[in-house]
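Priority: medium. Attachment 1 of 2:
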């Protein structure tokens, strides 16, 4: 029976809806510290490791908008539980993977499941609390849980890998996911369906464009940028992207409401979201391998060393509210990105012999600044969208951020493949991060507008 009992615990409902997001965040971050162990056990080259990380992000990013549409069409509770089931199946297959190709395929399945339950979890959270104050409080607690999961992911992954091996990073999802499905059935109401058109061709074009782009960025350094396979993938990417843009401009059922693009702030803030995730996840991939390959750390030590750097984002998130209340959203977003770019330039001086404390301190300062910018960026997107287009705008922002993560990891993989010396890898990687943050700051400066004089 889908109707919940009359008296429900707010905490249990929050926990039920946070399970999916927390598992997804843990999988994104925890897997990074397991990469060296996975490579040794399954004899996977560097490009294969990039596919292990980006295979998940590929289907996750490509299907997020479809996940939101399916939640409207078939009901968010059904889609949430279905997404959890697919994610669990993918986790089991990852844990049993006999080789790198099988593991990558299972990661693709995991990403598809996450794309289904992520949008529906927010929808269910909104429907579960009628009182605005309670809903706001629950959203804040939900965001905090997600932040803690992301920050602690490398440490949890390191502990699991150290004690039980890399496969445990995936097996741990099984009891958590089963519990979440059962709790969802017992505790969550089933909101009414809101049938809407589902443009399968547009979603398929998006998947093809991202898949082609991933192949070009990951395999280009290995096969050669002018090899037939890479050129074919590049052609597929360009053709799919152009057809998708044409359908979005002229089709009767675009993936995103055209009204969202009336303000340049919407496109700019989404560009900022793309570039932030490009840097955040590209840097996580880079540092996870650096600490183990150049620093000699094992998975647990890597998790411990990454913890303060990842926790810095959460510190920045908590600071963002009071800063935005005093200065609006444009200024902290701009200054946070500029500080991020400046610190990335300083981190170009890193070398394998640099003391860990300098790496941790510089990275933490940069990540606090970016942690302040992220909520301001999100608030800008939602302000431009308004209540009428809030769901579409949130889905678009999440998709763009996941695409940024996909490209960031792929590009860092290309840098690591083309340059073998860590003394050159680190400056080149951080120069790329500095350029991305500087570009994001320029988007804010040129296109993000302040709605009122008080927010200047």
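Attachment 2 of 2:
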């Amino acid at each position: 029976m889908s109707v919940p009992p009359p008296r429900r615990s707010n905490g249990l409902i929050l926990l039920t809806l946070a399970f999916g997001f927390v598992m997804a965040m843990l999988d994104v971050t925890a897997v990074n510290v397991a990469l060296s162990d996975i490579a040794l056990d399954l004899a996977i080259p560097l490009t294969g490791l990039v596919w292990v990380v980006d295979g998940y992000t590929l289907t996750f990013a490509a299907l997020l908008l479809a996940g939101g549409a399916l939640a409207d069409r078939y009901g968010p509770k059904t889609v949430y539980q279905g997404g959890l089931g697919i994610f669990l199946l993918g986790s089991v297959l990852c844990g049993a993977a006999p080789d790198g190709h099988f593991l990558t395929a299972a990661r693709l399945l995991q990403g598809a499941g996450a794309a289904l339950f992520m949008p529906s979890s927010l929808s269910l959270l909104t429907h579960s609390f009628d009182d605005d104050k309670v809903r706001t409080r629950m959203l804040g607690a939900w965001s905090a849980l997600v932040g803690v999961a992301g920050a602690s992911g490398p440490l949890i992954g390191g502990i699991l890998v150290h004690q039980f091996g890399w496969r445990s990073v995936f097996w741990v999802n099984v009891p958590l996911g089963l519990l979440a499905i059962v709790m969802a059935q017992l505790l969550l109401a089933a909101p009414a369906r809101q049938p809407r058109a589902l443009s399968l061709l547009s979603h398929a074009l998006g998947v093809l464009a991202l898949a082609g782009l991933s192949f070009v960025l990951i395999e280009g350094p290995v096969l050669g940028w002018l090899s037939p396979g890479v050129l074919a993938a590049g052609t597929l990417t360009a053709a799919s992207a152009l057809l998708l843009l044409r359908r979005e401009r002229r089709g009767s059922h675009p993936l995103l409401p055209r009204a969202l693009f009336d303000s340049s702030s919407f496109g700019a803030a989404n560009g900022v979201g793309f570039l932030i995730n490009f840097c955040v996840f590209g840097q996580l991939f880079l540092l996870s391998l650096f600490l183990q390959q150049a620093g000699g750390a094992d998975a647990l030590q890597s998790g411990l060393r990454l913890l303060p750097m990842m926790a810095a984002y959460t510190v920045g998130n908590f600071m963002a509210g009071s800063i935005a209340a005093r200065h609006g959203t444009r200024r902290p977003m701009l200054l946070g990105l500029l500080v991020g770019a400046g610190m990335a330039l300083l981190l170009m001086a890193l070398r394998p012999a640099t003391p860990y404390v300098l790496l941790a301190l510089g990275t933490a300062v940069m990540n606090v600044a970016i942690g302040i910018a992220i909520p301001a960026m999100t608030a800008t997107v939602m302000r431009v969208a308004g209540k009428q287009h809030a769901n579409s705008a949130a889905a678009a922002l999440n998709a763009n951020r996941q695409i940024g993560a996909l490209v960031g990891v792929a590009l860092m993989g290309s840098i690591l493949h083309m340059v073998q010396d860590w003394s050159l890898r680190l400056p080149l990687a951080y120069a790329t991060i500095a350029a991305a943050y500087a570009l994001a700051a320029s988007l804010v400066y040129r296109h993000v507008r302040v709605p009122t004089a008080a927010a200047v």
